[in-house]
Amino acid sequence: MxxxxxxxxxxxxxxxxxxxxxxxAVRMIREAAxxxxxxxxTPEISNLVNRDRETMMKSxxxxxxxxxxxxxxxxxxxxxxxxxxxxxSIKNSDKVTNCAFVITQTGNIAARYDKIHLFDVDLANGExxxxxxxxxxxxxxxxxxxxxxxxxxxxxxxVRFPYLFRALADHGATVLSAPACFTRQTGEAHWxxxxxxRAIENGAFMISAAQAGLHxxxxxxxxxxxxxxxxxxxxxxxxxxxxLILAEINTDAVIEARSRIPSLRHTRPTPVSVY
Length: 275
What we know:
By secondary structure, this protein is an alpha/beta fold. The protein is 28% helix and 30% strand.
């Protein structure tokens, strides 16, 4: 019985216009599907990259009306593929949810995930980010069945919190994900090692599509979408421009990795004494 499929990451350079972003994503998803991909993931905030709160709020849609989400549901149904919208900015009263959607081959939403860890940081180059000024954080992790795998969902900054990924693996995830809009500064320093570490720690595949390049709102993102196997080997990696990466996922490799290094079974509660 086959336990394999072709996964693709859509690497974008998102703009301020949700319709332009929708059309770019749809075009690349169609190309990925024509190359055999049946699981296709887009980056964080696929629908809108705009750090100015006032103009951003004017460009947002609710879940029921978001043009990218509507297009993805129709496309998944048409092409008989699973689409993981890495995240979309969705209007929610006076704030916004940074929400991932896993869409089935019938065009239905199988699961939603709101980003738990919000990126509130001051970087050494002077960049300051306060996602909590715009976004409402989530509180629940999710694992969802997709064909031939169980997908554990996270978003971007979540990748720095290993306990989240261990919880996903403990609940059956064989594929983990952290689609992102990583800054160039932090990406150059940490992106690759974090992706490989989460895969190795949990004996799982890691699939993470990323935003890439210089955006209309002035931010610069790192790109380098990655697909990593459970032994920490990079199966595919993007560069710093929009494009596609694809790789075969065979979840038998998860069983093999977890039998060789059974760390999930060896986890023990560890009391800590502080003196």
